[in-house]
Amino acid sequence: MSKEAQARTGYSACPHDCPSTCALEVELLDGNRVGRLRGASDNSYTAGVICAKVARYAERVHHPGRVLQPLLRKGTRGDGNWQDLSWDDALDHIAERFLTAERKWGSQTVWPYYYAGTMGLIQRDSIHKLRHAKKYSGQFDSICTNAAWSGFYFGAGTLAGPDPREMAKSDCVVIWGTNAVSTQVNVMTHAVRARKERGARIVVIDIYDNPTMAQADMKLILKPGTDGALACAVMHVLFRDGFADRAYLDRYSDDPVGLEVHLQSRGPEWAAQITGLAAEEIEAFAHLVGETKRSYFRLGYGFTRQRNGTVNMHAASCIATVTGAWQYEGGGAFHSNASVFGFDHSRIMGLSLRDPDVRHLDQSKIGRVLKGDEEALGGGPPVTAMLIQNTNPANVAPEQRKVIEGLMREDLFTVVHEQFMTETAELADVVLPATVFLEHDDVYRGGGHQHIMLGPKLIEPPEGPRPNLFVVNELAKRLGVTDPGMFEADALSLVDDLLQRSGHGDLEALRANKWIDCQPDFETSHFIKGFAWPDGKFRLRLSWHDAHAPNRPPRMMGPQGPYEQLPEFPDHCDLIENADAEHPFRLATSPARNFLNSTFAETQTSRKREGRPELMIGKADAERCGVSNGDLVTIGNPRGSVRLHARIVDGVKPGVLVSEGLWPNKAFVDGEGINVLTGADSIAPFGGAAFHDNHVWLRL
Predict the structure, then answer these.
(1) 527: number of CA atoms within 13 Å, CB side?
(2) How confident is the model at residue 621 (pLDDT cuts 50, 70, 90)?
(3) Where is the 4Fe-4S Mo/W bis-MGD-type domain (predicted)?
């Protein structure tokens, strides 16, 4: 009998940092090998569709380059000279070095550093349990969601909204600031269904002509960081031409009169000068959403990764309030469903052990932290020991040169728990082999949808890799934690505890059903009884300094960025890194279709399909600069410079450059990656990293 005939099907969820969090059917060939992965057809959001890179996940699971043995650095940092260790010896050595660092500098000299290489709530978040038990430095999670989450929350008072499956019931789907074909494919599943079944129009708003634009009925290609201006001009037209739902605004918003007065000077001609769009394009878009009550605004992350990104998100979300689109099935604005799950993470994260006086360090400013910047260190001791899980800061963090210089310090002891020898792992003192998601137990929640999903262990790992929870628990035993019982539960026990604490049943029910649908009813999802503020009003007018947010910086850190310059009403907030005489171009570092941050860059198929690091440049700019297709060009700014090959394209505004990635640093001609050019200064008012907001010069 063939292997295909013998194959069984297992059920899991994609663990990667994508709002789709797809429900998966996994072809199990034997006890430790998988075949093809498919989207679960009976999950109403995934609907049988997943991205190609996850469908071929077997290439990653069974990759010959996986780390399979604990390794100890021998010789010069980064030269690739390693000694094999047993797990016990490796963990003993780590504990000894952490304790030595603590004795010299205090517990806050140790910084557990993590992020979203897995989105599993157990394997990702258990690192905090060790952090709190030992009073190690905290981490302010700023690198991904903060600007987007804050901007949406400021308006609606929650991270929730109309059922994402309602895109299929819409008459107009506006995909704003996300290349969904490449980064969250299920958005397209439901949008295209609306077009097929209802004749819905699909509008795509972005900074370049990407694969999602190819699906659009209306394309709006604007300059980076100008989304707030577009939103204001659209709302100007809605008020001017009678499309504003004044009865809805009077009942459900805080200051519609003030907004209308504010917008009188912010019409299409004003926005055209800022965005690079034609005034006629803005008018047409405004009339489309004004005339189409069932307009669903699907708001992404990409357009918030600007220094004015929080303002841009809030402005875009206001349009659905002006039109009253929230009232209708298939209408409203949606960014994330993070607020609907109501999880009690206290046992997973050891929150009972948390000390509010322990400093927090900004994950986006890791370069500054490791270089000893006193402001970044919060007045505390230097970081001299790190445990890094689920992230690759040498590649993905801003101010890359500072990050790498910091990781190269000889007085820094770094442990990296990884699946592959990433560029961060190459600079570590100890590398520990990690399991992939099919080799351990976990539980997941959607960001772009409403399901809680079980991710059970489906195959046995190779001999060496161990899950994150194992590392955390074993280190705790060796580090003398005062509450060892906190570190004894296995992953499935923690899943069961999480579900029961949070009112979602128990593990056995989830195992039987595969997922739990947490979408609130229509009235709640569409805020029919009012938005999530005490007065039930959507906030059009903001007081930024005392605003609430899902991930507001700890009190000791305070507001971030130039928050005092933020506008009271939606506006174009000119805090971006504008082009100037020395830096005439604006650069965005957008995601590539076959990578996910730095993940999948190690697999042959993904690398082959992406080709090489390239710089997209418009035809007019290329001609003006004397650049031909394939030329090796240099782009730079005060942070550094990078060489890569030019690709001449249509569909970008003059003065805009795009480099899709995230490619490993070593894939570039000079061994330095694109994040050499990105800054770590905070997005106002509550932090975030402005990856798509860089001015640069270009030279042949």
Answers:
(1) 31
(2) very high
(3) 7-65
